[in-house]
């Protein structure tokens, strides 16, 4: 049901939300709006000093975000949207404009400025109506802003840092999310709460009413409240039997009379249709259909990686579809379709001259980039995709599905599945190397580890994390402990450099062989592979090898205790089910495991992305 009937005016139009903000998406879809999401690429770098007021800055940014999307969609030969909505939320305090923090220190600066004070939150909104004539894009912009004042309690340093480490501030204006943990910092709110969250829904509906039902001259003679959303019977009066054209209504005197001239039967049918639509048409299931299409998008991304499309385009760009097709040895028509989808997903740029990589593709999808995830993509395409086709069996049986994919029994997960041939082992190691390189710096710097002089990275694979630990702590000696086959290949992943002397590889099986001695043991994305029994076995071996005061650095994606949030973590749970013998665990579960094995003083830091790091200290037994 659409509460605000004017939202229904947009149901027949192609509406695009030019925003990556999940909050805006949620607010608008809860209001029954059907829309596509195309995040804007407009860089939020307007000169703040050139605006007389902060809200003008927010409105202009919102407008530029929406116009960038409208222009890009029009140019890309996608169908020009009818309406593009852009928004920008800022916080102002003491004459300063605060946007999203760039790092934890920035979040700290913002939140300490807000502590104990009142500040304003402005959201600027732009509604851009688009039309296309002779391939030219025409736009009409309607913009507005909303202000809400929020007062914070005095925040202690401890609370402030705990909040920052939760990771919540990073993608939020002013460094807090009033709708979640940040709500605990707030003493009072004056004005529209949703405006603080990122989208002033009430004002938006009023703006639509103004756009689609501008007051008639006779209304203007009567005392009419223009800032209200009309009551439902007012809307009945205003109902538009055409169900909405692509333009907002340009009400002219007499437009009602024209409707009155419609034949009685026709009017009755149209009214009945209008009532039926309003009463029975449920909100369009945009999100559901996007979820359904998710696997097709993944497969398109994986296929483009497998065909090395991004490698060819990194070498030479722009290139037309037939040229790429001949290089990747594929049909021209199929390649063009794949390239267009990649462009629509924001992985490629499409211009008259041809296709080029976006920055994301150059950074992460080309196989020779420093932070390439190409190996991880291939592992997903060749192994994980197949395992997920048996998800139903995994759910029914409660175990991994390698036996179905491989057609034989798997006794030893790594030897029989991942390392069953030199090719599968290399692909697995390349995948792990890509992910580890991307996250190693955050893991190495999550805590101050300078008190340790030796570390053992258990199952450390190619040594990507060891390298970052060595870089961060020049007096640390790191042993990478992994299976003999892994150690043999790992040298190929180790670049020469000053850290090489700090890193050593030791071959062994951590379930069977003695562990190398160290002051700090690292288990990074290891325990989630194993059953509770094996986790106990491993932790007791680590505990036995530790002297009092030794550390254990555990890195995993932690589930929340109720297993409701952290979509990434919950998907990892399914991933672990189809792929491994283990499972994702919550912070509480890990804390219990650690304490049971004599590791106390557990500290937790949430890292960017989905990982969490826990540091615990071995106490005397
Ligand atoms: O209490 C809350 N305050 C603010 C937010 C979220 O903060 C961001 C504001 O950033 P911006 O307006 O630049 O929007 P982006 O997220 O970068 O997305 P665009 O693609 O639209 O630029 C916004 O997401 C708010 O929702 C919050 O969640 N709580």
TrEMBL record:
Classification via InterPro entries: COMT-like, COMT_C, COMT_dimerisation, ITPase-like_fam, Maf-like, SAM-dependent_MTases_sf, WH-like_DNA-bd_sf, WH_DNA-bd_sf
GO MF terms, alphabetically ordered: nucleoside triphosphate diphosphatase activity; O-methyltransferase activity; protein dimerization activity
Start and end residues of each O-methyltransferase dimerisation domain: 289-367
Compositional bias segments (type: Basic and acidic residues): 249-261
Alphabetically ordered keywords of this record: Hydrolase, Methyltransferase, S-adenosyl-L-methionine, Transferase
A single GO BP: methylation
O-methyltransferase C-terminal domain sequence ranges: 388-599
Disordered: annotated segments: 237-271
PANTHER family xref list: BIFUNCTIONAL DTTP/UTP PYROPHOSPHATASE/METHYLTRANSFERASE PROTEIN-RELATED, BIFUNCTIONAL DTTP_UTP PYROPHOSPHATASE_METHYLTRANSFERASE PROTEIN-RELATED
The protein's name: N-acetylserotonin O-methyltransferase-like protein isoform 1
Organism, scientific name: Macaca mulatta (Rhesus macaque)
């Amino acid at each position: 049901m659409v509460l605000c009937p004017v939202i229904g005016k947009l149901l027949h139009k192609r509406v695009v939300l030019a925003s990556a903000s999940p909050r805006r998406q949620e607010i608008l879809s809860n209001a029954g709006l059907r829309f596509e999401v195309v995040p804007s690429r407009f860089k939020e770098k307007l000169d703040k000093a050139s605006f007389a007021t902060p809200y003008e800055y927010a409105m202009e940014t919102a407008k530029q975000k929406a116009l960038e999307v409208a222009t890009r969609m029009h140019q890309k030969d996608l169908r020009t949207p009818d309406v593009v909505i852009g928004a920008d939320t800022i916080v102002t305090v003491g004459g300063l404009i605060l946007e999203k923090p760039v790092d934890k220190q920035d979040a700290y600066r913002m939140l300490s400025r807000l502590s104990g004070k009142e500040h304003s939150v402005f959201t600027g909104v732009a509604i851009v109506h688009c039309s296309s004539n002779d391939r030219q894009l025409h736009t009409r912009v309607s913009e507005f802003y909303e202000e809400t004042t929020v007062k914070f309690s005095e925040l202690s340093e401890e609370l402030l840092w705990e909040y920052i480490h939760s990771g919540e501030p990073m993608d939020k204006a002013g460094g807090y999310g009033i709708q979640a943990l940040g709500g605990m910092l707030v003493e009072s709110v004056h004005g529209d709460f949703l405006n603080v969250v990122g989208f002033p829904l009430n004002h938006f509906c009023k703006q639509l009413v103004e756009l689609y039902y501008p007051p008639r001259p006779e209304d203007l003679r009567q005392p009419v409240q223009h800032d209200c959303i009309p009551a439902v019977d007012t809307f009945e009066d205003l109902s538009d039997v055409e169900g909405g054209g692509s333009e907002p209504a340009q009400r002219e005197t007499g437009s009602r009379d024209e409707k009155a001239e419609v034949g009685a039967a026709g009017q009755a049918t149209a009214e009945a249709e209008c009532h039926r639509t309003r009463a029975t048409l449920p909100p369009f299931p945009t999100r559901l259909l996007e979820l359904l299409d998710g696997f097709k998008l993944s497969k398109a991304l994986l296929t483009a990686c497998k065909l090395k499309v991004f490698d060819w385009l990194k070498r030479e760009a722009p290139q037309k579809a037939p040229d790429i097709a001949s290089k990747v040895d594929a049909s021209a028509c199929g390649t063009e379709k794949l390239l267009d989808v990649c462009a629509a997903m924001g992985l490629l740029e499409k211009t008259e001259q041809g296709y080029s990589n976006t920055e994301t593709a150059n950074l992460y999808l080309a196989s020779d980039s420093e932070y390439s995830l190409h190996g991880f993509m291939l592992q997903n395409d060749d192994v994980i995709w197949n395992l997920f086709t048996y998800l139903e069996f995994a759910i029914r049986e409660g175990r991994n599905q390698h036996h179905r994919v491989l057609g034989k029994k798997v006794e030893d997960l790594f030897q029989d599945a991942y390392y069953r041939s030199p090719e599968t082992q290399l692909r697995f190691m390349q995948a792990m190397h890509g992910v580890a390189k991307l996250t190693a710096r955050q893991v190495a710097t999550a805590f101050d580890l300078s008190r340790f002089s030796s570390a053992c990275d258990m199952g450390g694979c190619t040594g990507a994390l060891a390298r970052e630990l060595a870089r961060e702590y020049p007096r640390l000696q790191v042993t990478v402990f992994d299976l003999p086959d892994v150690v043999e290949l790992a040298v190929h992943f180790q670049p020469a450099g000053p850290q090489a002397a700090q890193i050593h590889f030791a071959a062994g099986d951590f379930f069977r062989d003695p562990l190398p001695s160290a002051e700090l043991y690292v288990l990074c994305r290891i325990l989630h592979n194993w059953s509770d029994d094996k986790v106990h076995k491993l932790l007791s071996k680590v505990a036995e090898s530790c002297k009092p005061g030794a550390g254990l650095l555990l890195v995993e994606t932690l589930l929340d205790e109720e297993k409701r949030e952290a979509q990434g973590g919950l998907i990892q749970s399914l991933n672990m089910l189809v792929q491994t013998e283990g499972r994702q665990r919550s912070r509480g579960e890990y804390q219990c495991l650690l304490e049971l094995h004599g590791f106390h003083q557990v500290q937790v830091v949430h890292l960017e992305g989905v990982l969490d790091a826990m540091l615990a200290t071995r106490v005397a037994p």
